[in-house]
Design goal:
Structural class: mainly alpha
Shape: globular
Distance between the termini: 49 Å
Helix content: 55-70%
Largest sheet: 2 strands, antiparallel
CATH class: Mainly Alpha
Low-confidence stretches: 1-24
Strand order of the largest sheet: 1-2
CATH topology: Glycosyltransferase
């Protein structure tokens, strides 16, 4: 063996060893990795020239689906140490402040926008983001119902994200436990009103169906809350039990490919991607935070990610997303909702899921 051959062979062996060690840590390939897909989703949002707006009656603001996507991308970019993307995402939304874009702050669907400026403040320390976020979190609590929760509560299952995530973000940034208590109180009341014996949630009190994305909002909201709520909190036991009951129930309804359906318990219903991403996100957090048994749940979130990756095109757009959906007493209404591609209702939880898979918590 000449003097050049041995170092060359050694170098090759070390490269192969490094590649093997890295890939063995993950269940995905380079083509369907959370980092690659998360970056595609990021680029897709930042290439959109306009904001997605919410305009319904006297309620106006940047749409919650865009807020949730921007929130996810901000966390994702920070996790990767991607300062260029953080600058781009900050510039996109500071423009909405400099141009005095209206947010009526009178409905869960526009107040929840605050989760984004809270996260942007965390990463950039721009006080203008903190001021905007605090206003939205505090104004959500301007008026209360007799049971002590905000009057923005509609008793739609979606609210477990729309209210809870905002108050949890306020707690994360300020350290004020009053925000965390608000989130916990809302969650326990919604559990009592909407969670059914099978662990799943009705869309609303007059909408007795287990709509996929509605349940996804609940799953994600509870996972966010339990990531912060101390075990000695008076609401912790009820919330953690409700969360685990839901997660166990979801295992029974996941398809063999790894998806969940538009109506979770209806085998004739189509596989729906936004709910699958939300459930995958909630389960991943549960496993990594020690809330769920990894031996029981790890395969579920792995299957979900691999299935979802097959629905993402080269432009980073997720397919088979249910369009925005109000509550209904008619089962056919849910079964016949249109599917769309690239809608931010699906882009948002896809990047959340990517973030949770890469994050060590």
């Amino acid at each position: 063996m000449n003097k050049l051959t041995f170092p060359l062979i050694l170098s090759l062996l070390l490269c192969i060893s490094c590649r093997k060690t890295t890939s063995d840590n993950y269940f995905w390939s380079a083509e369907n990795s959370p980092e690659k897909i998360g970056k595609l989703v990021t680029d897709n949002l930042l290439q959109r020239p306009d904001y997605m707006m919410y305009n319904s009656g006297n309620t106006l603001g940047i749409h919650y689906a865009e807020a949730c996507t921007g929130f996810g991308i901000t966390r994702f970019a920070a996790l990767l140490g991607d300062t260029i993307t953080l600058k781009r995402i900050s510039d996109r939304y500071i423009k909405s402040i400099s141009e005095s874009l209206v947010n009526t702050a009178n409905h869960v669907d526009v107040n929840v926008y605050g989760i984004l400026p809270f996260e942007l403040y965390k990463q950039t320390h721009e006080k203008v983001f903190l001021d905007e976020a605090l206003y939205l979190a505090n104004s959500q609590w301007d008026s209360l119902l007799p049971n002590g929760i905000c009057s923005q509560a509609r008793y739609w299952v979606d609210d477990i994200w729309m209210i809870v995530s905002l108050q949890v973000q306020a707690y994360r940034i300020t350290g004020d436990t009053n925000y965390l208590e608000r989130a916990a109180l809302v969650t326990e009341i919604y559990l009592k009103k909407l969670q059914q014996p099978n662990g799943l949630f009705y869309h609303g009190e007059e909408a007795p169906f287990f709509w996929g994305r509605g349940n996804g909002w609940a799953a994600a909201g509870m996972a966010e809350l339990l990531s912060e709520l101390p075990e000695n909190n008076v609401h912790y036991l009820a919330i953690s039990e409700g969360y685990r009951m839901m997660m166990l129930s979801l295992l029974n309804y996941q398809t063999k490919e790894g998806m969940w359906r538009q109506l979770i318990d209806n085998e004739n219903s189509w596989p729906e991607t936004s709910s699958t991403a939300m459930f995958g996100y909630a389960i991943t957090i549960g496993v990594k935070k020690g809330l769920l048994d990894e031996k029981v749940f790890t395969k579920a979130y792995q299957k979900a990610w691999l299935a979802l990756a097959g629905y993402v095109n080269a432009e980073g757009k997720l397919a088979d997303i249910c369009v925005g959906t109000g509550k209904s007493k008619d089962k056919e209404y849910y079964l016949n909702r249109p599917k769309v591609t690239g809608d931010l209702h699906g882009q948002a939880p896809l990047v959340w899921f990517a973030f949770s898979l890469l994050n060590n918590y």
